[in-house]
């Protein structure tokens, strides 16, 4: 294949733009903000799970407290009725009076025990409420950090997209000025060789594989016509000759 030396030189411009576009794409997919958002989102997910568990516990203890308070109220009402009976003088039998007094005493003990239960449940409920408040605050803080990280990421991605758009437009212009068959070869090699299809021959060294050409290879390059497409014997990339190639 033959191509004008100027067209071969433009391959280097095209290669530089393709390298830049590749770097931008790599940067886009490896932004530290990606990992930060992922980490913070995972933290937020864990906190949400903990918050749901704490809210469930608070709800359970609230029902438990209501039940315990109802039990206390029932015992209190019964003790009040018994006390009224005792105070009314309706019960006159010594045995019945003794039984009634014994029941009032038993109810008083029962009420005290139930009130202790209510206090214990209230303490657990207050602890659950404090846990809910703490987790809510922590979750809100992490969610704010997620939003901040997402905003930073969006801004960086916007800048990358803008730079990529500009580089892409420049590539279109350069590619349009290079013969189609040369572009086709370049693109084929670029796909096969890690994104680099053309390399500069600089001071007898291929900048694609970074290996210096031996004397035989240099003589072959020297003997090639200026419009002949030369390939590196080591990496098979298009080797572009320039005034500083060392020939």
UniProtKB/TrEMBL annotation:
Residues 97-159 form a coiled coil. Gene3D superfamilies: 1.10.287.1490. Keywords: Coiled coil. Residues 56-87 are annotated as: Disordered. The keyword Coiled coil applies. Residues 205-239 form the C4-type zinc ribbon domain. Residues 14-194 form the CT398-like coiled coil hairpin domain. Residues 60-87 have a biased composition (Basic and acidic residues). The keyword Thylakoid does not apply. This is C4-type zinc ribbon domain-containing protein. The lineage of its organism: Bacteria, Bacillati, Actinomycetota, Actinomycetes, Kitasatosporales.
């Amino acid at each position: 294949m033959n191509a004008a030396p100027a067209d071969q030189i433009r391959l280097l411009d095209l290669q530089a733009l393709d390298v830049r576009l590749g770097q931008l794409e790599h940067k886009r997919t490896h932004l530290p903000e990606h990992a930060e958002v992922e980490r913070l989102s995972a933290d937020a997910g864990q906190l949400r799970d903990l918050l749901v568990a704490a809210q469930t516990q608070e709800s359970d203890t609230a029902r438990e407290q209501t039940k315990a308070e109802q039990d206390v109220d029932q015992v209190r009402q019964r003790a009040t009725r018994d006390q009224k009976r005792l105070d009314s003088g309706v019960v006159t039998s010594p045995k019945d009076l003794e039984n009634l007094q014994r029941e009032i005493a038993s109810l008083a003990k029962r009420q005290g025990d139930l009130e202790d239960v209510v206090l214990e449940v209230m303490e657990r409920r207050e602890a659950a409420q404090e846990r809910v408040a703490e987790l809510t605050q922590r979750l809100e803080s992490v969610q704010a950090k997620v939003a901040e990280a997402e905003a930073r990421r969006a801004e960086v991605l916007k800048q990358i997209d803008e730079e990529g758009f500009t580089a892409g437009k420049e590539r279109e212009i350069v590619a349009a000025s290079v013969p189609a068959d040369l572009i086709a070869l370049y693109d084929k090699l670029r796909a096969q060789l890690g994104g680099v299809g053309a390399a500069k021959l600089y001071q007898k060294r291929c900048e694609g594989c970074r290996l210096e050409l031996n004397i035989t290879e240099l003589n072959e390059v020297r003997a090639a016509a200026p419009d002949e497409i030369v390939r590196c014997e080591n990496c098979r990339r298009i080797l572009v000759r320039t005034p500083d190639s060392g020939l």
